[in-house]
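Hi everyone,

Forwarding the result from last night's run.
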Amino acid sequence: MKASNLLLSSVFAISSMFAINAHADNTTRVAATSALGSVVGTALGNQMGGNTGAMIGSALGGAGGAAVASNKRNRTESAIGGGLGGVGGYTVGKSMGGTTGGYIGSALGAAGGSALGNKIAKDKAEDKRYNNSRNWNNKHRRHYRHR
């Protein structure tokens, strides 16, 4: 009975991830999908491999959820943040509140980590655009020998 409930909840969570993906790269959607993926990964990992499996599952679920919901340019940073946040949140939550605390910590950590990673990627892209646009009209071009 537990396995069928777990399978049904994971199917529902995965379908929610793809439904959220309709409008990609909103930081709130990235955080929500990463949190959902981290909780599902934690539950599956806990059933398969105990505490260590739950940590690995929370990392993979948080990273996968953030990667699904984020834009192509911000995907790597969001996935790294979601994975690290999911593991850290699970560890802290498990030590403070047991299994339920681990699930809550995993969700909060993955949401915060993926939102932060998404924001860092956006800021980095904006800085890159700003720095590249300053030198496009360089009127003092010289031959490469005379530089």
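The first helix runs from residue 2 to 20.

Cheers,
N.
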